[in-house]
User: What shape does this take?
Amino acid sequence: MSDYIIRATAANNQIRAFAATTRDLVEAARVAHDPSPVATAALGRLLTAGSMMGIMMKGEKDILTLQIMGNGPIEKIIVTADGRGNVKGYVNNPNIIIPANSKGKLDVASAIGAGLLSVTKDMGLKEPYSSQTVLQTSEIAEDLTYYFATSEQVPSCVGLGVLMNHNNTVKQSGGFIIQLMPFAEEVIIDRLEKKIQKITSVTTLLDAGYTPEMLLEHILGEFGLEITKQIPTRFYCNCSKERIEKAIISIGKEDIREMIEAGESIEVNCHFCNHHYDFTVDELEQILHRKIKQNA
Ligand code: ZN
Assistant: This one.
């Protein structure tokens, strides 16, 4: 795995920035879920954002969940990330195929449609932080820019890109998040705005072989870019047979009994990584016993 995220500052800490290369992790997600190219692009963009936003959280045990719900054929995309570069996710309808947009690109906006972005941060407090914003373009990057501006009051610029090979594997994936700190001077804000307007698309830069360092140097080089940290990132699911067992225990006794009476082993799939877990009738009976004991 060669994916990583860099953290950086510029203009004497008035700007903070993140950039990531996520080709391998998006390809791992593609192998796990076998989504169509447009669904891969949508999931890949949100996974890339999730990996960087996970790193932004303060605590290593904090969990970030990004959820996009739209009226387009994908219906829903969910991405979960932690503070150590682990990210996982899935789309509701991975098989959708829609025509390319007017620029001949994968039409992520139409696949998602109009809807909501919700951001949840579980920082181990009683109530997780949660915020919902209306999707602005449904291209994901602009929707996150809007989220940062309205919900976190942090002026930001988000760029995300996923490029597919002709054989439908992932060719390039990556992105950046640039944010202005509250004490940023007007002159820096003006210069950064002008600079950002001139940036060609992330996809173009990735296709030209830009690394995360080069992406940030391209945008922030003239502001005195200082890279402070490099963090590996990967597609990782923490599911296990024990966790799936807990999920089965949480359903009703009658439902478990029905499965046992059907006399066949059952297969349970993890939403996030599509791993299959088999439970034999014997195992289901043990689960039912444990449930009855728990309730006694
Ligand atoms: Zn899993």
About this structure: The longest helix spans residues 37-56. Residues 237, 239, 270, 272-273, 275 surround zinc ion (CB under 6 Å). The radius of gyration is 21 Å. DSSP finds ten helices and 13 strands in the chain.
